[in-house]
TrEMBL record:
Compartments in which it is found: Endoplasmic reticulum membrane
PANTHER family from the UniProt entry: BNIP1-RELATED, VESICLE TRANSPORT PROTEIN SEC20
Taxonomic lineage: Eukaryota, Viridiplantae, Streptophyta, Embryophyta, Tracheophyta
Membrane-spanning segments: 214-231
InterPro entries in the record: Sec20 (IPR005606), Sec20_C (IPR056173)
GO biological process: retrograde vesicle-mediated transport, Golgi to endoplasmic reticulum
Chain coiled-coil ranges: 86-120
Membrane topology qualifier: Single-pass type IV membrane protein
Pfam family, one: Sec20
Source organism of the structure: Brassica carinata
Name of the featured protein: Sec20 C-terminal domain-containing protein
Record-level Gene Ontology MF annotations: SNAP receptor activity
Family: Belongs to the SEC20 family.
Domain of life: Eukaryota
GO cellular component: endoplasmic reticulum membrane; SNARE complex
Length: 290
């Protein structure tokens, strides 16, 4: 069964009990003073009014509880029936207040009549009046003691009610604190998982950074090696070009010196001789490997 339904049923039972007890107290107030001559009044009128007022306060709080629980019921039919029951309770509560007022007026009238009868007996004299005075004095003392005890009990009850309310507020505060702590725990778990993922991501980024550094170092080393290789090859080619150029110049210089030492008669052989052509080797093409 739903928890709200259970609370509603409990409230109904408490209302029935409190309603019956309040009616009993109101009837006792209404009958107060009728049997005073026989000494049958064991509870004072003030005590009866206090009990009736406590019953009305309890009924009012039960109305408030039912008004809070009605909208939380699971079905619309239950909500409507509970609201109609709440209206009935309100009418009964107002009727009890009116009856309590009427009962107090009736009790005062009864006490007035009883006092009138006692006055007549006291004025009449005799043994009956003496016994009545003694009984009245004894009843007055007992009534005073009972009223003082009742007042102390009412104060104790009020203190207990205050302590119960304070304990209830403390429990509510504890429940709220528990809810806040549970919420904080769930948030902490979420943050912890987020921190774990962040830590893993940072570890991955660190590994990637190390790999990138290694790749950069290796690439830079290869680039430097290639540059050194190209520079070394370039320097070797320049030296080779210089050596080849020097050799060609030396050969040309030697051929020119030999041509200047020949006799003039040998240069022209009557026009029939073909002059010797100096075989000069062609300069070989040097290709730049760059």
């Amino acid at each position: 069964m739903d928890e709200v339904v259970v609370q509603v049923e409990k409230t109904k039972r408490e209302w029935d009990d409190a309603y019956e007890k309040t009616i009993e107290h109101i009837i006792a107030i209404q009958e107060y003073g009728k049997s005073r001559r026989e000494g049958e009044e064991k509870i004072s009128l003030q005590r009866l009014n206090g009990l009736a007022q406590d019953g009305l306060s309890l009924l009012n709080s039960l109305q408030f509880n039912l008004d809070l629980l009605a909208p939380q019921l699971p079905s619309d039919d239950q909500v409507q029936s509970t609201q109609s029951l709440l209206e009935t309770w309100k009418n009964q509560y107002q009727s009890l207040r009116v009856n309590l007022r009427s009962a107090n007026l009736k009790a005062k009238d009864n006490m007035r009549k009883a006092a009138q009868q006692e006055r007549e007996l006291l004025l009449g004299g005799g043994t009956e009046s003496t016994d009545l005075r003694r009984k009245r004095q004894a009843n007055a003392g007992v009534t005073s003691d009972a009223e003082s005890i009742t007042e102390s009990l009412r104060r104790s009850r009020q203190l207990m009610v205050q302590e119960v309310e304070r304990s209830t507020n403390t429990l509510v505060a504890f429940d709220e604190s528990t809810g806040v702590l549970k919420k904080a725990e769930s948030e902490y778990k979420g943050h912890r998982s987020l921190l774990s993922r962040t830590r893993n991501l940072l570890s991955t980024m660190q590994r990637q950074d190390v790999i990138d550094r290694v790749i950069l170092i290796i690439g830079f080393s290869l680039f430097v090696c290639a540059v050194l290789y190209v520079v070394s090859k370039r320097i070797g080619i320049l030296k080779l070009q210089q050596m080849a150029t020097a050799a060609i110049k030396a050969q040309l210089a030697g051929k020119a010196a030999n041509g200047d030492a020949m006799p003039i008669g040998q240069e022209f052989d009557g026009g029939n001789t073909v002059p010797n052509v100096v075989d000069i080797p062609l300069q070989q093409r040097l290709h730049d490997e760059l």
